[in-house]
Amino acid sequence: MAGEHHSIPRPWILDFVLPFLVILLIAAHVLALVYWIYRLATDKQPQAGPQRSKPKERDEYFVLDDEEQAAEACSTLHKEFEL
To answer: Which parts of the chain span the membrane according to its record (predicted)?
Structure first.
């Protein structure tokens, strides 16, 4: 009798429910990560500043008649591309 060893039975929750919950949490986090990457890839980026008109065709150009027009065009371009 002195040499008998009685083990305490393990609760069933540790054998079945806990591993299921761990797998469920891992799956939820993986799905959330995939959705987050999908949203980053498909969301439209907000435009900084006022709405821009559609870009001009490459072959369009304009002629500056005097120095004042050139200075105004330069300052406009500087303001437009300033970060």
So the answer is: 16-38
| CB crowding 58-83: b at 16 or more within 10 Å, else e | eeeeeeeeeeeeeeeeeeeeeeeeee
Helix (H) / strand (E) containing 58: none
Structure tokens at 62: 């304009």
- CA 80/CA 49 separation, integer angstroms: 9
* Closest C-alpha among 11, 2, 71, 81 to residue 48: 81
Each of the 83 residues of the chain gets a pLDDT tens digit; together they read 566 777 888 787 788 888 999 999 999 999 999 999 999 999 887 666 666 566 555 555 566 677 777 788 778 877 777 64
